[in-house]
Amino acid sequence: MIDLAKDGAVWTATLNRLDKANSLTGAMLEQLVDIAEAARDDARVLVLTGVGKVFSAGADLDEARAGLATSDVWERLSGTMADLPCLTIAALNGTLAGGAFGMALACDMRLAVPGAKFFYPVMKLGFLPQPSDPARLVALVGPARAKMILMGGAKLTAEEAFAYGLVDRIVERDQMAEAVATLSADASAAAAAHVAGIKAMIK
Questions:
Q1: How far apart are CA 58 and CA 27, in angstroms?
Q2: Which among 81, 23, 8, 19 is positioned nearest to 56, based on CA atoms?
Q3: Is the dihedral angle over the CA atoms 153, 157, 158, 161 positive or is it negative?
Q4: Which helix (H) or strand (E) holds 32?
């Protein structure tokens, strides 16, 4: 349910569970961790995207009720993504919800299509967010807006997410591949140490 494509130094991991709005199972999350760990040595760019019109609805509901909602795999995934020495891009093909926020927040850049929605209903569902998500969210949007999302149940449009700083660019669906390719070009052509060095300086 995770498709991995490699185009030279650019890797693209695609969530492919169309019939379930790309909701995430434990097996999918573990596979994403494995991909991210492998990308550490072999990729200059790692892109996360999805099929259809939803990036991810978050955790698979049946597995969430069975314990996935509180599993440490979410934090392992976002931590691995955040620590990668390569450029990471979340190419959000649609709505980003719930636990799927973690992997997107951990990326270096977030692009989104018009019409995407952004919400993280942990207050409503009775779960705590993953441990690192609030700090990453605050770094992007500020504490008040983070509280709107995590405590106030705000559902942001793509335009609001861009205005808040949660999304770096809004890209038409048919132009997403070109936008990702443009942003990937310099890093994919550079030496791994150079990519890692610049990213370390920014951190």
A1: 14
A2: 23
A3: negative
A4: helix 26-42
Query: What is the tens place of the pLDDT at every residue in 93-138?
Result: 999 999 999 999 999 999 999 999 999 999 998 889 999 999 999 9
b/e map of 142-153 (b: 16 or more CB within 10 Å)?
eeebbbbbbeee
CA 59 – CA 12 distance, rounded (Å): 21
- Return d(Cα 11, Cα 162) in angstroms, integer: 25
pLDDT digits (tens, 9 = 90+) for 153-181: 999 999 999 999 999 999 999 999 999 99
Q: Could you give the domains of the chain?
A: 2-202 (3.90.226.10)
First to last CA, the chain: 32
Residue 101 is encoded by which pair of tokens?
């926020």
Distances, alpha carbon 88 to alpha carbons 19, 115, 151, in Å: 26, 23, 28
Kindly state the tokens that stand for 149: 């999302």
